Every structure is written in C-alpha cells, then in structure tokens.
Amino acid sequence: MAAKAKQMMLMLSPCSFSLPLSSRSVWVPAALVFYNQYPTKRHLLVRSAYTDSSKKKKKKQQQQNETENALSKEKRRTRSLRGVDDIMEEDDYSNSMIMQQSQSHIPVMLGEVLDVFSSISKPLYSFVDCTLGAAGHASAIIQSHPQLKIFIGMDVDPHALHIARSRIDALSHSHPHPHPRFQAFTFLNNFRHIKSLLRQVDHPDISSGVDGILMDLGMSSMQVNNPDRGFSVLANGPLDMRMDPQASLKAEDILNSWPESEVGRILRDYGEETNWRLLQRKILQARLQGGLHSTGELVDVIRSVTHGTKRGRQGSVKTATRVFQALRIAVNDEFKTLEDSLLACFDCLAPGGRLAVISFHSLEDRIVKQTFLKIINCNIESGYGSVKVRDTRDMTQIEGENKNESWIRQTIQGRNGIILTKRPITPSEKEEGFNRRSRSAKLRPLPLPLPLPLPLPPHPTLT
C-alpha cells in the first residue's frame, strides 16, 4: 500500500489543481491534496506526534495554572505545622478522645487551639467556650490546664449540650481530677448573650474578665449527619436549618413566603452564587406548584438549574452547598450575631487574655478579620497601625508573648492591641487527610494586651 502511494505521488508531483477560494483560483500542488486524502504511514505518525505534543503542552499549562493557584492560596494563610500525631504524642488523653469522637465529631484544629491558649502570658484560670458542641475543645482545655478554676460553656443546641454536660461532669470527677476548686457552668443560650451569662455566674475569678474565650463557628458532624435538622445536601429531610430548635424562623419560611428580592439577595450575598437569578426564578415557580417543603425538593430545583452544565453532578452538589449555606446564615442571622458577639467577647477578656475564633468560609473569616482590625483600632492605609514580619528562625519574644509561639509569622499592631497572625492559621496537611471537614477551617487569635505598669512616684527631694 505504501509503495503504491509513493508511486502515485511521483506521478502527480509535477501536476497541480486549481481550487476556488473566495471567487479566486488558488494553485495547490497535487502532492499536498493527495497527502490529505490518502496520508502515508509517515504522515500519520507526524500528525499523531503533533497531536500528542499539543496535548502535553495543554496538560503542562493546566498543571502550571493549578500550581500557581495553590501557591496563591498558600500566601493567603499560615499553614499549621502540627498534625494529629503531634497532639497524641504530647497529651495522653488525646488518643482516647479522638477515638471516642471519631464516631460522631472530631474537634477541628485541636492542637492549634491548645497552642494558642497554652502560651498566654498568664495562667489560664478561667475559660469560656461559646460554641460548646460535643465538648471536644472544652475537654482538651480542661485536661491540659490543671490550674483552671472555672469553665463556662454555652450552646443553642439542646442535644449537643446534653452530651457536653455529661463529658464535662465526667472530667470533673476523674482522676487525676482538675483543680480542687474547679467549677463548670453550662448554659442553653446563644453566645451573643455572653455578658449577661457571665454576670449570672458572678464568680470571683472572673470579676476582672476571663482568661480565654473560644468560638468555633462550624457545624458539628452530629448536626450535619441528622437529616431532621435540614443541614445536609445529601440526605432528604425537612427544610429547617435552625441552630436553635426553639427559634421560629425556618428555611421553608424563607423559600415559600419571603419577597422575591430578599430570596435573591440571600442567594447572592450569603451564598456568593453567580447563578442566583435563575435559582430565584425556579424557587418562585416552585411556589406556584405547592412550594418547597423538603431538602430533596430544593436539591431537585438546584439540579434543574445546573443540568447539562460541564460540571455535572459535582457542580450541582457545590451549588446546593452554597444555597444551603446562604439559607442557614439567613435563618440564624449569623453575620449580625457574629459581629456583635466578637465585640462582646473582647469586652469580657481579662488583661492578657485571648480570644480565638475558628471560621469555615470566606464571609465569616472576613467579618472576623475586619472586626479584629476595628477592635485594635488599626487602619494601615491611614497610617494607624503597622505589619511586622517575624522570621520563623527568630525565637525571641514578640510584644511580651511566649518565645515558643512559632506559629506567629506576621503580626498587625494597632493603637489598642495586636493581632498575632496577619493571615489565618489553617489545618496541617495531616489533619486535612484525617478529617476532611477541617479543610476550610481558619483560626484567628486576638489577645488583650496587659496594662502598662504605672510610673513610679518621684523620689522625695532632700531638703
């Protein structure tokens, strides 16, 4: 076959064809036409090599883009160097704790939280957990600080609070037990009421404020895995989404009765959903057919919007996750509650105490960052405040803090205080592999500076 093709090529080589192209004639060598119609084996190999080369270039460019995106993401955070193994080696209780909670809920960034509160410039005598949950962080704090005298925990979920109370009570009577005068108070309440709850406790060790406050803004696995709560995209259940089961507003009420403009605003602002207009129209159409009453019906509406897109099922799940996030934020008024509570928590700190916040999406983290800047009265653009970069090899003290705080890389100094990390601390690679739900966690600590020492009185002059 190849020999015949070669022979025909030799015969046609001096010939040429006249082909019409835009009403003009173009002379094309017959050999070129013959190559395109009846390619030889060598020609096919050249074509194949060219195609493979194009694919390799495209793949290389894609890998380069992914690497650049990953590096850009790394620059916006401080990756923790700790891992689950580090916690287990340092603390005897951690192994059993993680094993006990692996069935239900694993506390996120446990080692990093312990680091933040283990290196404050004063003993940790009092501590408040604003989002008690299953008491994962609380149990670790109580056991790692034997000098702790008073613990206060609160949560709006009665089921989670019941589990937390039983675990804290067991710790209070365990051997070796905490401080002989250790007391624990737990409340079924929202952390926005932290000031009134501390007044209600009225303990002498918190008269000047508390030494540590933790806020974990994520949902526990117990809540996500329970279809009756309405938080899960993958399980069918009622459109509830209330963190506090006693609250009146449900996601079902928003979808079926709120004004069209408000539904669109929630999807756009709280879910950051680019396709919010089409989703809004689909939700309004569903109202005419009886409304939406289950998470499965809402997911079906979302699938109808994302059907036929390149992203396929993965795209519909991601869109549903954003929509569910938006509705949950609206149902629980999370953003307004968060900003007010951060200001209230800072007011409740004792001098030298610390507030640590774990957030799970960019909107929450933005509120935490901006509120922290407001608290320390820092406006770098206007000249009020500065950013200090710390060399990771430099283990000297920073602003009076413990020299072993290697997680402090960049600090922001304001008029009223200092933010210990310019960028949020994120989980270690080990923890992300161990607990996939920790991947989006961001930790930001904020200390309340110690008061400046009073100037000594002048020496009396001799007369």
Describe the structure.
This protein has 463 residues and is α/β, with parallel strands linked by helices. It has helices at 2-12, 30-37, 41-75, 84-90, 92-101, 110-118, 136-144, 158-172, 194-201, 221-224, 251-257, 260-270, 276-288, 295-306, 312-332, 334-347, 362-375, 429-434, and strands at 16-21, 24-29, 78-79, 126-129, 150-155, 183-188, 210-216, 349-359, 386-389, 410-413, 418-419, 425-426, 442-447. It has a six-stranded mixed sheet, sandwiched between helices. The protein has a three-stranded antiparallel sheet with strand order 9-10-11, with no helix packed on it. A two-stranded antiparallel ribbon has the order 1-2. β1 (16-21) and β2 (24-29) form a beta hairpin. α12 (260-270) packs across α15, α13 (276-288) crosses α14 (295-306) and α16 packs parallel to α17. The relative contact order is 0.11.
